[in-house]
Amino acid sequence: MNTIAAETGLSEAATELTRADRDSFFHPFSAIRDQEENGAIVMANARGSRIADVRGREYIDGAAGLWCVNVGYGRSEISQAIEAQSRKLPYFHAFNGVSNEPSIRLSEKLLEVAPSSMRRVFYGSSGSDANDTAVKLLWNYNILRGKPEKRKIISRTYAYHGVSVAAGSLTGIPVVHQDFGLPLDFARHVSRPDLYRDAPERQLHSEEAYSAWLAEELDQMIANEGADTVAGFVAEPVMGTGGVLPPPRGYFEAISSVLEKHDVRLVADEVITGFGRVGAWFASQLYDIRPDLILTAKGMTSGYLPMSAVLVGDRIWSVLKEAAGDGRVFAHGFTYSGHPTCAAAALANLAIIEREGLVARAAEMGQILRGSIDAGLGDLDMVGDIRSAGLMLGVEFVADRLTREPLPASAKTAARIALAARRHGVLVRALPNSDVIALSPSFIITEEEVGALATALRKAIGDVAGELKEEGVLPA
Ligand SMILES: Cc1ncc(COP(=O)(O)O)c(C=O)c1O
User: Fold this and answer.
1) Which residues of the chain have pLDDT under 70?
2) Is residue 152 within 6 Å of ligand 1 at its C-beta?
3) Residues 6 or more apart from 331 whose CB is under 8 A from it?
């Protein structure tokens, strides 16, 4: 019996909802034709790690939405905090020196759990706007330091930093650029760190040697561009949408010394990795990264309300503060910067993470998930690589395990596996480039649910392998 679906009582309305969706809702990152022909899957309600659609089908959410529902669904503590705050002071802006208690308390809390060099918190509503704020902070910082030409920002191929015009330029995923004439010309991209595909292609067989090669590439790029034109380097500590790529050993150490040499600031995009996902409050702490800016969103509220934060480190803050002596305004901010109700949701979410020890649990469940996926999928011919950091895990599919030959892109293998997994009752994400599916369940996922995820995925891979054999994509 599907208990969540029974609560909704919506099944008769499902067809009407699907039609209304098709005729009115323009979906992000969705194929318009697919919505027209197949209709959307309409979600209705959720508890813990499980979610149900309006037709009453229940799924284990192996992705926590989009890497974000870290404390799980149905947390009444967060809902109550939202209700209480929205009754008391639902909204007021934070422009012109106005403030509110939830945002003040949240700022204190973020500085308490973040690396100690962070000094101030600037708020927005999305990971994309956090990246835009970082770009403008770097530009402003260099203008104030008398280096207005120092404006270029280096990111990495296949990075995901969002879709707004500046963040979308930093993103290194071709489909985000193609149809929009991006990137803008302040953005540059060096190679992603991909131990499975790129390191062996370059004959780099130790992680340290690969890190040194990547740092050398960055050094060359900065030298070629001219260090006096490069303001920043932005990186996800563990690349998410670009393939779930943990950094090779020594990577951030090697990169950081190049950045220091050229007076280039480091931005850690912790929109996915912040607030426990990799088994530490921030990945910067886990990998000993010393960023000048830390960007966060998603897990700060576990997605219950939209909110982002840019944590501003000492080196940048001290320049801004120094220059402020003439009374200048930092002319950047959003209607919803420091939104009191979103801040109340974030505070309730962080209180749950602390009280229930969910950062440690993410580390522990990350190992259990890894063990379960290794055991459940490791022997399958199509599984080329399994990699993970805490509760972020990627499975890469190949045509040949020995040669690592990729499957043809036209076969859309990962997308089909994600669809087949849905038929077997689990939601996972197919990433946009390589044939990788990502798992990033909530931190409260149980061992039993992890086992069910692995079992369903094994079946889904079996289904798609069978189809690919029939189609002649794989040998029979
Ligand atoms: C690392 C990273 N940065 C930025 C973003 C953009 O966040 P948003 O979709 O909230 O704009 C994402 C979204 O997935 C992300 O993974």
Assistant:
1) 1-12
2) no
3) none
